[in-house]
Structure prediction request, 294 residues.
Amino acid sequence: MDIARPHNTILQAALWMIGAIGAFTSMAVAGRAVSDQLDTFEIMLYRSLTGIVIVVVIAHLAGTLHQTRTSRLGLHSLRNLCHFTGQNLWFYAITMIPLAQVFALEFTTPIWVILLSPLILGERITRIGLISALIGFAGILIVARPDPANLSPGLIAAAACAIFFALTAIFTRKLTRTESITTILFYLTVMQAFFGLVAAGFDGDIALPSRTHIPWVIAIGIAGLVAHFCLTKALSIAPASIVMPIDFVRLPTIAVVGMLLYDEPLELIVFVGAALIFAGNYLNISQARKTAPN
Prediction:
């Protein structure tokens, strides 16, 4: 029984990660499907409105809706503004460059967490953390291949979204010290709906999704919440050193989807760069696991 338990744990985490990978992939496909009619601010507006309904209904059924009271609106606002910015950049990037490039650059989020945590959380950056960051940045250079000829707005957006996702993760870490998951998700959806309404309506014209686009918009809202829920569940079952290699399957998955649906080429160099990014992240996770108190 003791021998079987770790295998069962890994299997459960893998199943949750399959759900996360499917949800992230679905969100990318749905985002492209509506991009011909809706801009990124409008996509975020409708995604957040869908999210509000889902969060409120589930919180009501779970009896946790009363937890949405908070005294940390400032930190919630900062966290959600970072996530709103990062998600807008992500939705823009998936319409401009191959999906595999977007996902590869998104994997640099943990590298930015390593570099930004000392500035925001006062955490000390270790030598292994610095080496991990350098390896990850080598991967970024391989994926992005920055030169004046191919440094497109889409590449810049994909690279920048990882920075804002890292800031989101850091501020989320601070919030989880005092706030419940229900509270964080509630203010995430409500605040981002407000941000989306302001940004989308700034020009006085908010496009409504057509009848054929409504299912895609709903899918974006559901997929976004499902992806993060599945990822959180996997991390609660198994350590990051196990979950992260499974999460890396997102890259070949989205590369195949891009090839089949959008005729995007499978570039070996993107996988090489992404492997370096993964190696940098995994080195840091392994070191953290070794030094963590038992």
Q: What stands out?
A: The chain has a mean pLDDT of 86. The longest helix spans residues 4-34. The two ends are 22 Å apart (CA to CA). The CA atoms of residues 241 and 289 lie 8 Å apart.
